[in-house]
Design goal:
By secondary structure, the protein is α/β, with parallel strands linked by helices. The chain contains 11 helices and 11 strands.
Length: 336
Amino acid sequence: MNAAIKRTVASQARAFHSSRANNFKVCVVGAAGGIGQPLSLLLKNNPIVTELSCFDVAPVTPGVAADLSHINSPAKVTGYAGPENMNAALEGADVVVVPAGVPRKPGMTRDDLFNINAGIVAGIGKGVAASCPKAMLCIISNPVNSTVPILAETLKKEGCYDAKRLFGVTTLDITRANTFVAENQGMDVSKMNVKVIGGHAGTTILPLLSQVEGAKFSQDDLDKLTHRIMFGGDEVVQAKAGGGSATLSMAYAGAEFAIKLMRAMKGEKNIVECTYVESNITDSPFFSSPVTLGPNGAEEIHGFGEITAYEQKLFDDMIPDLKAQVQKGVDFVNKA
């Protein structure tokens, strides 16, 4: 780590610790997009956020920030547009939420997004290293299975990687699972908390329906619900008929995770969320499972308990694909 980065790390660490008493500065990277705008709105509305920094390459971004700033909630809002202003937007951030990138279009898989979004995410990693190396990073940019390893490898090269502070946001998978299972079982959706493990793309998404307390599923239920949770994003893409992908539900899920992370950073106990992190509980270097969040980020990574033979088959089939997607992200940075 060079001297300039060491000074930045030390300065950011001091700012980070002092800011905890006064809530947090959050930077949304990709704030002018279909996810970024409603995500920024939800964060602006939460009192845990003291300062909201909105960044995007789009020139409309200062206007998005001005619009948000008229809302009568405490957070101060600033807006930055253009790559040359990214470091200024990130400066001193405690939490960085990243929905930046190109959204999926009809017929496009998450893997198709890779070549477009990988370079964007790597560039963001360099900006984080320069401006807020101690920040918590919440990655939404798809394909998450690869973009999180890209961030990790980029930060390693910049000398400021901390595995506890890097999260792939898989909360939308849990949000969908809670909604779909509650509908199927006639349960109260506000009390649902379906455990969803693995990754964040298609068959790497594994809902553990066997662990839903009080639920009784037929085999047909299991097949249909599991498939719908795995491919819920396709349902939205098709329903929008070429008009986009999941934006509002993803914004909701992204804000939910970021807010729970900040509550844990402030010292609230027993906040456990499924999230995609560097992990050794499976053969995949990154894996989503329940994680206890705390002041330092990922405080403890948990296993996922007993699973059925049906779920074990899906798990066994998923791991090679997940490992390959992780490796694709690692190779992108190391071959660059």
